Amino acid sequence: MLDKFFSPETYSMLGTWALGFCKNLIVAIVVYIVGKYIIKWICKLCTKLLKKSNVDPSLFSFLNSIVSVVLWLLLAIVIISILGIETSSFIALFASAGVAIGMALSGTLQNFAGGVMILLFKPFKVGDYIEAQGYQGTVKEIQIFNTIIRTNDAQTIIIPNGGLSTGNMKNYSTEKYRRVDLDFHFAYGGDLDEVKKAIREIQADCPLILQGPVDDSDVVAEPWTGLTELAEKGVVVNTRTWCKGTDYWTVYFYMNETVYQKLKERGYMFPCKKMDVNLIK
Questions:
Q1: I need a labelling partner for 250 at 20 to 30 A (CA). Which of 15, 23, 120, 124 fits?
Q2: Are 95 and 180 in contact (CB under 8 A)?
Q3: Which uninterrupted H or E stretch holds 79?
Q4: Separation of alpha carbons 179 and 210, rounded Å
């Protein structure tokens, strides 16, 4: 039995297999060494391209990790196939594992994809004042899964990037100039021309209010005041005032306070809602 097992044919088969395996092993080692340098070169190239595209630095490590993992998996499959091992089972295993992980982490992956989109296309940046998902505040940090904003009353809000990247969002910091729109109610019977004249004087007295078009904007216009509605409580006078975006709230409160004080001194009444109750004996 042993003589048959260690026969010359067996030695020949073993020698042929060993010679072929050694050749494949040498080729696999060469492919591994070359592939390793190619992967490093591709990762460096991706980093350079991302830097030229002004992508947020916090995205570098994530994208490089993804590219590196994918390339190393491809290299492993190539090396396994060179060694003569069937790779279809490995590919099926990776595919099924990817599907299972994707289903288990669907929400997390959505937030991850949203973070990548935000960091790539930059609909807003750190320091911008935005309104999204029912909250308003200043962006303090953009993470890969969440965006952190701070409201005006110093509350920290953490918003998942998935909904933030697909939902509606207002960015109040995109434009250099903003328009302050305000409505003032006055009682019927007043002199409309005198009201408009007084409001225009108030607009002219504030140095933060732009008095006309500016060279670096095609939307800024001179202050405007006009009657917009004959309401139940009185007439409605609308004011449209342009200012720098950073001065918005200063101008907003200035207009409200000054219009109330100045016109009240001139005898104009600001109506309020009233209810007449008649008692029947």
A1: 124
A2: no
A3: helix 60-82
A4: 10
